[in-house]
Amino acid sequence: MNTAVRMKILITVKAYPAISKKHGETVCTAGITEDGQWIRIYPIPFRLLDYKNRFHKYDWVELDLIRNSKDFRPESYRPTNLQEIVTVGHIETDGNTWLHRREAIIDKAKVYTNLAALKAEAKDKNICTSLAIFKPSKIIDFIYKPVSSVWDKNKLQALQSSQMQCNLFDNDDEYDIQEFEVVDKVPYKFSFRFQDDSGIVSTLMIEDWETGSLYWNVLKKHEGDEILACEDVKKRYFNDFAETKDYYFFLGTTMKHHYKSLNPFVIVGDFRPKYITQEGLF
Fold first, then answer.
1. What is the three-class DSSP state of 120?
2. In the predicted structure, residue 231 carries a pLDDT above the cut 50
3. pLDDT band at 154, cuts 50/70/90?
4. 172: pLDDT strictly greater than 50
């Protein structure tokens, strides 16, 4: 029998909002416990939470979680009461070297450098790794490709129907959904092309909320010019983060593709401090 457990988690991942028939608009969120264990928190209707419950990346939060019995991935949990999420701390950037963030994340959780080894762990049903830190040996390129700019019609209709019935979250007193608008779908797929420590080249899609938000911000700056906006996103992620930072990926799988895809991982977040120099230690 599943029993709810109060957990303290450092939030490291907030994926771009997605639409599902069952849960409406949700955000896949993940983080690391104090002993370095990955925890996936889903579903969270993040934009419908009260502002006091809206946590940020690198916040320590406490909440009651229960193992998600409908998800075979061992890191997957679901919240039992979204209104009892409490932010209990935040780790700052430490002069952009991220010393304390490194201590809580890189020093605690396993860092992978070989993608084949990580995929093998994911496919092994005794391990079934579905969240991980990955350090690429070399980042080759940042790619953007156009995709559909509209959400799946069936999922959107299911969401709209739920809103009209005012029972999207089973308690219409908890959320004000009357003025809620579904987040815009990013009309481009962003990906990194990189090498691992064996020299194998791979391409993984990025699903980080920050990437989508950056696109919308620079699109506004360029007055709707999508190519200029995408080039700005590329400059930020490739020319700045990838080329000048001590860059790591947070990788995650989706339940649907975990065992079906040859490579089930996508980039759900990143870790991008400055390199630590001898001066930075003092």
1. helix
2. yes
3. low
4. no
Whole-angstrom Cα distance, residue 256 to residue 143?
A: 24
- DSSP single-letter state for residue 134: E
Topology match between the domains 5-90 and 111-149+185-281: yes
- HSE, CB side, 13 Å, CA atoms: give it for residue 262: 3
Assigned architecture for domain 111-149+185-281: Beta Barrel (2.40)
Neighbours of 246 (CB within 10 A): 16
Domain extents in the chain: 5-90, 111-149+185-281
d(CA 75, CA 131): 7
Decide: pTM greater than 0.85.
yes
* Distance separating alpha carbons of residues 14 and 75, to the nearest angstrom: 15
Chosen CATH of 5-90 out of 1.10.1020.10, 2.40.50.730, 3.40.50.2000, 2.40.240.50: 2.40.50.730
In this prediction, residue 157 carries a pLDDT of 58
Query: For residue 254, which of 213, 204, 212 has the smallest C-alpha distance?
Result: 204
**169 pLDDT more than 70:** no
Q: Contacts for 50-58 with beta carbons within 8 Å, 24 or more apart?
A: 50/83, 53/82, 53/83, 53/85, 55/11, 55/85, 55/87, 56/11, 56/90, 57/11, 57/12, 57/13, 57/14, 57/269, 58/10, 58/11, 58/12, 58/90, 58/91, 58/92, 58/101
pLDDT tens per residue, range 97-112? 999 999 999 999 999 9
Higher pLDDT, 175 or 120: 120
Residue 186, both tokens: 């990013």
Residue 81 has pLDDT above 60, yes or no: yes
